[in-house]
Design a protein that fits this description.
Number of helices: 3
Strand content: 5-15%
Helix content: 25-40%
Strand order of the largest sheet: 1-2
Organism: Schizosaccharomyces japonicus (strain yFS275 / FY16936) (Fission yeast)
InterPro entries: Actin, ATPase_NBD
Distance between the termini: 42 Å
Order of helices and strands: HEHEH
Oligomer: single chain
Radius of gyration: 17 Å
Protein name: Actin
Pfam family, one: Actin
Shape: flat
Number of strands: 2
CATH architecture: 2-Layer Sandwich
Number of domains: 1
Structural class: mainly alpha
């Protein structure tokens, strides 16, 4: 894994699946097994597959694009 050593534990422990292709049956278990095999043996891998993950990307984008997140003092 090519990232800062200090954040690896957090990254391995907080993997969130999102998007339509993650809806295949058994994909979360498969990802768990494959990532666990690649991770150091002492590392805890946690895969989160929320039921609404098919739309998670769209929901996140709509939240970021909402007027509450846009700057108010922009000179065009």
């Amino acid at each position: 894994m090519k990232c800062d050593v200090d954040i690896r534990k957090d990254l391995y422990g907080n993997i969130v699946m999102s998007g339509g292709t993650t809806m295949y049956p058994g994909i979360a278990d498969r990802m768990q097994k494959e990532i666990q095999a690649l991770a150091p043996s002492s590392m805890k891998v946690k895969i989160v597959a929320p039921p609404e993950r098919k739309y998670s990307v769209w929901i996140g984008g709509s939240i970021l694009a909402s007027p509450l997140h846009l700057p108010t003092n922009v000179d065009l």
